[in-house]
Amino acid sequence: MPDRDDLVVAAGFGGGPRVDGFSGESLAAGPVRLFADFLAFEPGLRNGTYVAAGDVNGDGRAEVIAGGGPRVSALDGAALFSNAQVRMADFFAGDTSNRGGARVAVKNLDGDARADLVVGAGTGAGSRVTAYAGKDLAGAAPPEMFALDAIPGFAGGVFVG
Fold it and tell me: With contact defined as beta carbons under 8 Å apart, do 138 and 88 qualify?
């Protein structure tokens, strides 16, 4: 049987910050959890949680990246498989007063064999797209690789990925 990509899901706008992951091999027959579901942010968050997965630290396991409010968190993938939530990074991306969400995606942008993080501004925060190097996602706010205004003058937010 060929390898299948796994599935990471979270609630959209109006839902809480619960994140869950399922084995791609199991989806057709009945989903099997990869790790225990968890809250990526405070339980009262109701502006949706956006998720992506990619190996940002180069250990061969995909980290789960969650965006909620203006906040972004990267959770260590190896720890998740042991049902522990270890935050590698936790920072505000964009306007800290905006509650329209932080939309996230991962892609290797700099050719170093690690996934890098791309964040799109949420509703009401314009159309800013910001990228961060995976190697810099540890601890405090990482430096920006680049940032751009995808649609100048548009305030509706932008999805990335």
Answer: yes
DSSP H or E segment with residue 117: strand 116-121
- Distance of alpha carbon 101 from alpha carbon 108, whole angstroms: 23
Q: How far is 37 from 68, CA to CA, in rounded Å?
A: 16
- How many percent of the chain have pLDDT more than 90? 68
User: Whole-number mean pLDDT of the chain?
Assistant: 90
Band of pLDDT at residue 2, cut at 50, 70 and 90: low
**Domain residue spans in the chain?**
7-149
Q: Which residues contact 63 (CB under 8 A, 6 or more apart)?
A: 53, 54, 55, 56, 57, 74, 75, 76, 77, 88, 115, 137
Q: 3-state DSSP call for residue 65?
A: strand
